[in-house]
Design a protein that fits this description.
By secondary structure, this protein is α+β, with helices and mostly antiparallel strands. It is built from four helices and eight strands.
Length: 166
């Protein structure tokens, strides 16, 4: 009897999955698709969009006060994030061992770190920086098969919008 119930439950689960209904009963997506204006209105956060960037898309995780922008710039895909916080923290959403790390300064005043990791045949670059004056943490990342000579810090400079230092 138990075997028959388990078989029926498995068959029902398989039918739901094949019918696409599983996604409807799964967990809701915590991210909200939005615009730069929507992020500013809801969270009071902004980032610069590099001149010439295309396919710019915004979303936010309101409960975390985290905003994310994805874009393509010079045929390279990027993800940038900003979040208010009391201290430097990794908001990148990237979970690698970073064998290459270098301290940097963004915007002439924000301490940060630029780092690089390998993910198979792909190189991943990330820059994190913290603006102590505004209490905002930033991240920008990109990946490609070959990033030799690439400067992720220069990308960070394009995204950083200096806040008030009062």
């Amino acid at each position: 009897m138990i075997k028959r119930i388990c078989a029926m439950a498995l068959a029902a689960l398989l039918a739901l999955t094949l019918a696409g209904a599983w996604a409807e009963v799964g967990m809701p997506n915590p991210w909200t698709e939005t615009t730069a204006e929507g992020v500013m209105e809801a969270l009071g956060l902004e980032m610069g969009v590099p001149e010439g960037a295309t396919d710019v898309a915004w979303r936010m995780l309101e409960e975390e006060q985290l905003a994310e922008m994805t874009f393509t710039w010079y045929e390279q895909d990027y993800t940038a994030r900003v979040k208010p916080t009391d201290a430097f923290e990794d908001i990148s959403g990237l979970y690698y061992d970073w064998p290459q790390e270098m301290e940097c300064t963004v915007g002439g005043r924000c301490k940060g770190v630029c780092r690089r990791a390998a993910d198979g045949d792909v190189t991943v670059d990330n820059c994190l920086w913290y603006d102590e004056a505004t209490g905002l943490m930033y991240s920008v990342s990109t990946s490609a098969p070959d990033l030799d000579g690439f400067d992720i810090q220069a990308s960070a400079e394009q995204l950083y919008v200096p806040g008030k230092t009062e």
